[in-house]
User: Fold Probable nitronate monooxygenase from Streptomyces xanthii.
Amino acid sequence: MSSALNDLFPHPIVQAPMAGGASCPELAAAVSEAGGLGFLAAGYKTADGMYQEIKQVRGLTGRPFGVNLFMPQPEVADPAAVDVYRHQLAGEATWYRTPLGDPDGGRDDGYDAKLAILRDDPVPVVSFTFGCPTREVVHALQRVGTRTVVTVTTVEEAQAAQEAAADAVCVQGVEAGGHQGTHRDNPETDGAGIGLLALVTQVREAVRLPIVATGGIMRGAQIAAVLTAGADLAQLGTAFLVAPESGAPTVHKEAMTDPLFTRTELTRAFSGRPARGLVNRFLREHGPYAPAAYPQVHHMTAPLRKAAARAGDTQGMALWAGQGHRLARALPAGQLVEVLAAELDAARAAAGQRGAA
Assistant:
């Protein structure tokens, strides 16, 4: 195993940074305390909001943790298409008695301000989603002792991360819940994502960087599988979303194993970017018509999603979930890390016995 990240924590288990509230300080600290790597999600937060959460984690644990940043987004949306979708959502605004959000609410997610904080007051790990940082940004973080990770969904993106001198890549399979972390949002490639095991193998043969594998992982045996395929660490999101420390709404947690929700789909309905969630009314009605317009659609639907969550209406929420959601276990985060580690050890032992037979 590479020492780029593995020397920071004993178990090869990373808690995915889930923007929108799930990856709160309590969850990140609990995972880190148990010997995994907990992550804060800085996406959709102000720079000060991110900083306050970092301070909270430090007050809860002295162990390493990470912070995830969203890369600034280029202007690719068609304003006319955004306007059409706004009119389509008018009925939702009436139903939830809330106005739609401003689609022009910003595309950079406070990126520069967040970077400035992370350079001045470093954390052990910073990861990037929706693009690749420049070599200058990576080097600036490395100079203050921060390890850098870039989320990738293709071999080409992994090669770009290696060129930028990142310390590791987070290889995201199409099974993953929430947003696909593609560097460029190309509608022509919708539905063309690669499964995790195939993608890990391809990336392993193409770049020299350590690999964090993520997408649909819910059991220790799956962690063993991705490590065998060439990954150094496994990152789990949906598995930790249902933990009591998670900041996700209770109804979102319960939906993971609710028989009412039988499958997931990639959709642009809630944010304008492909993201995997449980299929509900909102996704079915609006998914086919949502434009490629991130973060404009995200800003527009944010008040609707918040209103639905307040009402406990799972049919109007973005119920982000990976393909393994039915395997969710509502265990305390620290206990889940221990269970996963024990399952991983058992899977390795079984594989060793088979190999010796």
In short: The chain is about 40% helix and 15% strand.
